[in-house]
Amino acid sequence: MARDTDEVRVRRVYEAPDAADGTRVLVDRLWPRGLSKAAAELDEWDKDVAPSDGLRRWYGHDPAKFDEFAERYRAELAGEDGERAVRELCERVGSGRLTLLTATKDVEHGHVVVLADVVRGVRRGRS
User: Fold this and answer.
1) DSSP alpha helices (H): ranges in 2-110?
2) Tens-of-pLDDT digits for all 127 residues of the chain?
3) Could you list the residue range(s) of the whole structural domain that residue 116 is in?
C-alpha cells in the first residue's frame, strides 16, 4: 500500500522493497515485530522523529483520536528536536525520493501520514 506524493512515499515496512522507494527510513520508535534488519532493507532507522512514548500510548491507534493525535504530534515536530529530525528528512528528499516506513497496520491513521505531510510542507517552504 504505497502512497506517492511528490518526493515522499509512505509504506508499511512489511511490504517488499520497491525500486522506486529511493531512501528507505523507518520512522517508528519501536522495531517492527518479526522483521529482521536484513529483510527490512533500510537505509536508516530514525526513532527520534517518531511520536513520543507518552503520545503514542495516549493515542493507542484509536481512529477516533486521530485528529487530536495529529495536532499533538505536529506540536512535537515543531519543537527543537522535531524540527531537526524533519530537516534531516527533507535533506534526504533533496537527493531523490524518500520512503517513510512504518509497521502500523492502519497507515491512514498513523503518525507516518502526519510526518509525510510535515516533510512535504517544509519542502514547499511552509511549516
Assistant:
1) 37-40, 53-59, 66-78, 80-93
2) 444 446 899 999 999 999 899 999 999 999 999 999 898 999 999 998 999 999 999 999 999 999 999 999 999 999 998 999 898 888 777 767 899 999 999 999 999 999 999 998 887 775 4
3) 3-123
**CB-CB contact of 18 with 106 (8 Å):** no
Q: What's the pTM value of the predicted model, to 2 decimals?
A: 0.89
Cβ atoms of 18 and 37 closer than 8 Å: no
Backbone dihedral angles phi then psi of residue 21, each to the nearest 5 degrees = -65, -35
CA torsion, points 4, 37, 33, 110, in degrees to nearest 10?
Answer: -20
Residue among 87, 77, 84, 89 at smallest CA distance from 22: 89
Domain tally, the chain: 1
Angle at 126 between CA 85 and CA 79, to 5 degrees: 35
